[in-house]
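Query structure, 330 tokens:
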């Protein structure tokens, strides 16, 4: 697809992005040239923490409360009003269906009221498009590792309009492995950041956790999690406290080794990493030559959705009123 769509070269337009696919309610304003004018993320982490994971019904209800104020805040932060907005981009798939519907309904209402086009965005394309925002503004082609709480994929990115899947996880996502590992270690939710912090005080060679070898360029993390489970279970309870940092460091090291190994096998002149796990400090250190999404844009946000909206065909007013959200990526 040629050039940023639906905008023409030289034209400066503002895109409103809306993201509610999981447990972050987010809105952002991004210009057609990829400048982030504002990005607001209201995290629901504390609501879900007692359950050790996202509770879909709680997420939908909270999105409903937050979506309007979050959009208003994004407009205010950008010094803009709805009359400055040229298109509304919203995550329509994949994600929790009830959560997605809140963002899609809000986007439809706003776009319809102002007769604007609506751009339906694939959340995974959004993660990749976090790399297209300025100042990074990464040019394809590149091989991209997308590692988040819901997905772990290797992508061949030839242009900004999409990607080709080279490999995916056969069971847990890398972020899920971090979250489940953190739970086994008695750490908080979401676990990635907690393990990352604790691992800094531990020895990554203390335990030799196995990295699953599956054919092709796919991933598997469920065996690793089981291995941590058995190691923790076999430790005398009074020893766990003293070994927690070593366990976190070794466990993280195994996940990072698996991700880096696959990237090396996939090859490619340019490597990029996106998604929540791209915030991991050991992963960032292990791939010094790779392009990483900026830290604030690794976990779910709406700037990346507006960014993907620049390279996705819009649905004209009022055809999108029948547009639906979809839970699955396929
Ligand atoms: O991209 P994201 O916000 O949500 C999904 O689309 O899934 O990713 C969230 C995931 C969580 O599993 C979280 O534990 C993980 O990203 N994460 C990290 C770090 N920060 C967040 N994993 C490892 N190290 C981190 N520093
Ligand atoms: Zn995500």
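Result returned for the query:
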């Amino acid at each position: 697809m040629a050039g940023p769509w639906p905008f023409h070269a030289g034209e400066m337009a503002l895109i409103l992005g809306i993201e509610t696919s999981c447990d972050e309610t987010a809105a952002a304003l991004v210009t057609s040239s990829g400048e982030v004018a504002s990005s607001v993320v209201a995290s629901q982490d504390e609501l879900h923490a007692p359950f050790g994971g996202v509770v879909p019904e709680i997420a939908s209800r909270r999105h409903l409360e937050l979506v309007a104020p979050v959009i208003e805040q994004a407009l205010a932060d950008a010094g803009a009003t709805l009359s400055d907005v040229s298109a509304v981009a919203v995550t329509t798939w994949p994600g929790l269906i009830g959560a997605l519907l809140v963002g899609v309904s809000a986007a439809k209402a706003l776009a319809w009221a102002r007769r604007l086009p609506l751009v339906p965005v694939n959340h995974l394309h959004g993660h990749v498009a976090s790399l297209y925002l300025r100042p990074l503004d990464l040019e394809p082609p590149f091989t991209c590792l997308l590692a988040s709480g819901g997905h772990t994929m290797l992508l061949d990115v030839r242009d900004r309009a999409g990607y080709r899947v080279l490999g995916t996880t056969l069971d847990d996502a890398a972020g899920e492995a971090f979250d489940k590992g953190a739970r086994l270690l008695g750490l908080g939710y979401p676990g990635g950041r907690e393990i990352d912090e604790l691992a800094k005080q531990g020895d990554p060679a203390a335990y030799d956790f196995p990295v699953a070898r599956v054919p092709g360029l796919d991933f598997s993390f469920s065996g690793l999690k089981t291995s941590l489970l058995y190691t923790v279970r076999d430790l005398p309870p009074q020893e766990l406290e003293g070994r927690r940092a070593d366990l976190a460091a070794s466990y993280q090291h195994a996940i990072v080794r698996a991700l880096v190994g696959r990237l090396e096998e996939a090859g490619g002149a340019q490597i990029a990493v996106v998604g929540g796990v791209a915030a991991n400090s050991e992963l960032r250190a292990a791939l010094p030559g790779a392009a990483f999404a900026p830290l604030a844009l690794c976990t779910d946000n709406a700037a990346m959705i507006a960014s993907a909206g620049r390279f996705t065909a819009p649905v004209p007013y009022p055809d999108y009123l029948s547009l639906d959200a979809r839970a699955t990526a396929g």
